[in-house]
Amino acid sequence: xxxxxxxxxxxxxxxxxxxxxxxxxxxxxxxxxxxxxxxxxxxxxxxxxxxxxxxxxxxxxxxxxxxxxxxxxxxxxxxxxxxxxxxxxxxxxxxxxxxxxxxxxxxxxxxxxxxxxxxxxxxxxxxxxxxxxxxxxxxxxxxxxxxxxxxxxxxxxxxxxxxxxxxxxxxxxxxxxxxxxxxxxxxxxxxxxxxxxxxxxxxxxxxxxxxxxxxxxxxxxxxxxxxxxxxxxxxxxxxxxxxxxxxxxxxxxxxxxxxxxxxxxxxxxxxxxxxxxxxxxxxxxxxxxxxxxxxxxxxxxxxxxxxxxxxxxxxxxxxxxxxxxxxxxxxxxxxxxxxxxxxxxxxxxxxxxxxxxxxxxxxxxxxxxxxxxxxxxxxxxxxxxxxxxxxxxxxxxxxxxxxxxxxxxxxxxxxxxxxxxxxxxxxxxxxxxxxxxxxxxxxxxxxxxxxxxxxxxxxxxxxxxxxxxxxxxxxxxxxxxxxxxxxxxxxxxxxxxxxxxxxxxxxxxxxxxx
Length: 514
Known about the structure:
Elements: H1 2-20, E1 32-37, H2 53-69, E2 74-80, H3 96-99, H4 112-122, E3 126-131, E4 135-137, H5 149-152, E5 157-160, E6 163-166, H6 171-187, E7 192-195, H7 212-218, H8 227-249, E8 254-257, H9 281-284, H10 289-294, E9 300-301, H11 316-325, E10 331-332, E11 334-337, H12 355-365, E12 371-375, H13 379-382, H14 387-393, E13 417-423, E14 429-434, E15 447-454, E16 467-471, E17 475-478, E18 489-497, E19 510-513
Parallel strand pairs: 1-2, 1-12, 2-3, 3-7, 7-8, 8-9, 9-10, 11-12
Antiparallel strand pairs: 4-6, 5-6, 13-14, 14-17, 15-16, 15-18, 18-19
């Protein structure tokens, strides 16, 4: 307890110092600031199974309000934790992590994914639908509801360790998962589809993956001594198909993967990182993620660099540099293990209050790295050394827009027009503007950015300190204290953000006395 108090006091002092040095002014205007919301095992949301719909929605609102206050701009919601659904699926049962019983809908009935999407968009944040593709059961005794796809096709997978998985080597499995992704992209206004690091399972010493039957049937000419290459090819085909299917439906929906933090060690491949990881994405999980980003099969990667600076086997600096060198003109974000702050038995390095601030600064120094995603959301509430408050007061003090999707070409977004301001109830002012008439597509407004400065100043569109808010709808309520001795005039100007995160020019100004 005393140690935690000491660490918190150090963090408060550090926060004051960096704030006084103008760190917030050095923050980029465009930067991924994302957070993973894990539903498996109720890690983040809902806090426990069995909450009614109103309680679940209240927790969602609390989460999203906190993310908004932190100036985060993207939520990665796990909508498919174990071959089930945190949404109204046309293919799979409701998740047990909602009600406690697989197949049981929220009560009263509502769609959590819809609720999250609307909540995120109304707060100016993106929503990426995070799916774990191949996991079926966390433990053998988990019950599957009658009619579950694995009950219909028990030959589609196998148990490895204590978990059960769909087999990536079976074409019908890959086709089934593709249909699930397409269903979500068609029916929901998601900003992205997101896979984590689990393709083939993490290796268990002394235990072979039991895929000999599927190899014999679907080996496509691979010999048994090349079964590793065959497995990687299975995952390659899956990733290629998912990306193609998404882009055929809604080309602006991003597709991203969050791989294990080490692709390959240099000792095994001259193109690998100067690390000594026991497991790698390529050799252990059969995921050639560098091939995927090099060939344009994914829009972004989020390597999970859950280690600290100077880690003896996987140094943060070494890995951040290596991944930046392999961005191939796509968006490369860094995944940070916020859970380390409260992990039992964690390395002493995580008790150092400057570890994560140092990581943020290092990511920002590298122009090939476009921001950070934090695992996971509950840690923002449970951490003990004041890091959340630090983000609010220093590095995330200003808002940030999402990085652009530059490799997809669209039309220039329309500048908002007909800006009007009128007084409404309680002395507040309603700011409104016209929404451009465009068909669904790249140019459709995703968000509007409201800029503000004092009358007499000039808004610099490249400086994030002038971003007042980011909103979904073409109106904004400016709340003005009823009793204010001295009012000031502010200039407001607005831009449009389109589906590719491109920004229009500034609108004409409107002056409001408030």
